[in-house]
Specification:
Rossmann fold; about 270 residues; about 30% helix
Length: about 270
């Protein structure tokens, strides 16, 4: 793994992807942040050694280097999911490469279902903690110490300092941001009524199919990280209605401009 990480990193350095300050992972329907960057370079995932390739048609599948608020930012426009057939090691490989390219902080976004009945479609929720219900952990197997400790601490997986600053930026721009616990499931199907009840009982406010593997690896490597979710559907088991992926993407797209602007202002303050 270490050799593959270095090969991918060296390829990207030759393309100018070096001395980065911030990494950003853009989730489903959340891509307008790229328009707010002063773009310096783009590379499709398929051209990067050892990178997975995004199989979802609504994920652009490219790495973008740009300037935001005077900082060098590398954005993943599209991510990978366990349900696509990738292992969690493959899913998190790009995060390890971003670390080699210099990032000091990692920002992630996703679309999620609102298990907390106080959350409504379009709400922006800052993730304060998570419950990992996926069946595979990216740290399983041999652990090269150069990448991180065998047993990383997860008492604060989402940086308190970053979350505090994000809330301050949101408040100063009169943007309402809620907070909650994110449960990661394998997918790709949405949950049953009984599963939504279960998620609520165990303390989840949100449910989705991404983010947690990247957060685990970020903590493993000592990168402070923060994640923000857009609620795209309301998961009330007592009045559950069918929802399509097109509806989910439409809600995420509607919130995209606001969240992208918030990310821009937040990075400017880092």
């Amino acid at each position: 793994m270490v050799h593959r990480i270095e090969e991918a990193s060296e390829f990207l350095r030759r393309k100018g992807f070096d001395n980065a300050d911030v990494g950003v992972v853009l989730g489903t329907g959340l891509g307008k942040f790229i328009d707010k960057m002063e773009v310096l370079a783009r590379v499709h995932y398929s051209n990067i050694p050892h990178f997975p390739v995004a199989t979802m048609e609504f994920h652009a599948g490219q790495l973008v280097l740009g300037i935001v608020g005077g900082k060098r930012v590398i954005a993943m426009q599209g991510r990978f999911h366990f349900y696509e057939g990738y292992s969690t090691k493959e899913i998190t490989f790009p995060i390890r490469v971003l670390k080699q390219l210099g990032i000091k902080n990692l920002l992630l976004s996703n679309a999620s279902g609102g298990v907390n009945l106080n959350f409504k479609k379009g709400d922006i929720v800052l993730i304060e903690d998570h419950i990992n219900l996926q069946t595979e952990n990216p740290l399983t197997g041999p652990n090269p110490e150069i990448l991180g400790p065998r047993f990383p601490d997860m008492s604060e997986p989402y940086s308190l300092a970053l979350r505090t600053k994000f809330k301050e930026v949101a408040q100063s721009n009169n943007i309402i941001v809620k907070e909650g616990v994110y449960a990661a499931v394998s997918g790709p199907n949405l949950e049953t009524r009984a599963e939504y009840r279960f998620l609520g009982i165990i303390g989840a406010d949100l449910v989705g199919m991404s983010t947690v593997p990247e957060v685990i690896v970020s903590n493993h490597m000592g990168i402070p990280c923060m994640a923000v979710s857009v609620v795209t559907d309301e998961c009330n088991p007592d009045s559950l209605k069918p929802v399509s992926i097109n509806e989910i993407i439409a809600v995420a797209n509607k919130a995209d401009e606001l969240l992208s602007a918030l990310f821009l202002k937040f990075i400017e303050k880092l």
